[in-house]
Amino acid sequence: MKIFKLTLALSLCFACCLNNVYALKRSGSGSTPASAEEARSFKTAIENRVFVFQAHTAHPMAWRSVNLDYGFYLKVSPDTIQAYLPYYGRAYKAPIGPDESGVKFISTDFVYQIKEGKNSRLDITIKPKDIAGISYVLYLSAFPAGNCSLSVQDPDRQHIHFNGIIELNE
User: Fold this and answer.
1) Rounded CA gap, 17 and 110, in Å?
2) How would you classify the pairing of strands 110-116 and 103-107?
3) CATH fold group of domain 35-168
4) How confident is the model over 109-143, as pLDDT tens digits?
5) Quick check: pTM over 0.85?
6) Burial zone of 158 (CB within 10 Å; 0-12 exposed, 13-18 middle, 19+ buried)
7) What is the three-state SS of the chain?
């Protein structure tokens, strides 16, 4: 009986490992690095503020990961930041109306900073200044292959993290 339980546990672990490898290959996380020209166009688009972050998964602080449908985004243009993202987690200050839930805003006055990280990663910090009563800070970590993560910090809520891809506006 002990051998049966051990064999069952090992086979479940093996199946989980295979599933994770398959998921990494399918998502492109293990993909080859971008060419030099793709990396340059990626960096130029980020510096010129012409891209869209499409969220695929949400990772709340105290909850499980949530797979998202298409349509949740952070759109960055030279003069405007537009966010339409869900929120899962604890809010320390409840919104008044149902339209105020989630991370939804349009900002034309914001701070936009870029730092270069390891492996051609670009770390982007966005601080909208013209949203009444809300002080979001958004941190993006973007790779030339298109993978990106977004962390949204708000003093009135628990932090939330999103994974997704960057779409460059040509």
Assistant:
1) 43
2) unpaired
3) Lipocalin (2.40.128)
4) 999 999 998 888 999 999 999 887 788 899 999 99
5) no
6) middle
7) CHHHHHHHHHHHHHHHHHHHHHHHHHHCCCCCCCCHHHHHHHHHHHHCCCEEEEEEEEEECCCCCEECCCCCEEEECCCCEEEEECCCCCECCCCCCHHHCCEEEEECCEEEEEEECHHHCEEEEEEECCCCCCCCEEEEEECCCCEEEEEEECCCECCEEEEEEEEECC
